[in-house]
Amino acid sequence: MARDVVSWEEYQRNAARVVDGQELYIVEWDLALTRDELRDRYDRYVAAASTGQDDSESTGRTESPLRVNRVGTSDDIWTWANRFNLRYCVSNAFGTNKTRIVNELANAAANWEYVADVDFIYASTQDANNGDRRYPAAHTNDYTAALHMGQSFLIPFAVTTNFAEECFLVGNGPTAAHIRYGDGMAGAVLASATSVVNTGVQCGVNSSYTWHRANFPGVALFANSAFTVAFGNGTQTLRMAIHIGNPYTRGNMWDSFGGGRNLSPWDGRVRMGRLGPP
Description:
Number of strands: 20
Order of helices and strands: HEEEHEEEHEEEEEEEEEEEEEE
Shape: globular
Low-confidence stretches: 131-138
Distance between the termini: 40 Å
Strand order of the largest sheet: 12-11-15-9-17-18
Radius of gyration: 22 Å
Helix content: 10-25%
């Protein structure tokens, strides 16, 4: 059964906000859209309402069943210990806007704490070291191996990646890398890196740990599939920054001893994605 819908004018008016003299459109409490994006959302809202479907594009408040991402057989959520120690920092690169950013983040964090069982902590001592790849702010462990070291990823949607980065101790970083099918070292090699470079960007507790980037020639990763990024040429000694129960990689850490050894609950500080246009 079709439902009544608000007009485009009312929909636009309800979402409109002025920030620093610029008009933006806010939906879902904190999602900023352009006018064209809002119009596209409105059209989907009208189409759904006309057939009686769930009003997922409304600017108003809606309720739906709790949804939690799953990794294997486990909920992808913060551990009990970590959820009350979620630390963040604010880069000094914000300059004269930094105080405003600090205040607005504190307000946003407080709002989340009000509705969620978490605690955000502003780690201001890390501000001077903050950069676009520094998450979390510091690592507390590392792992040394003389064979391949890898980290698996569960890819929720299809993507073409052309790089992967891992946090290594300078002088103990890799000169080679590859991507394998599946979770672990047993899967077939999908692609090998064309080069591996030390970016010089700090990623650990001090400048001795930097991001090492493996460049790939565009590797298609399938949705809802597992892939493992493995670093090293099989003989060099590697020293990788790790975490215990780190949620960012959503996978398992591996080395290639004995044909592949799962190092859970450790996770390597690894990121992968795409640089440049799609």
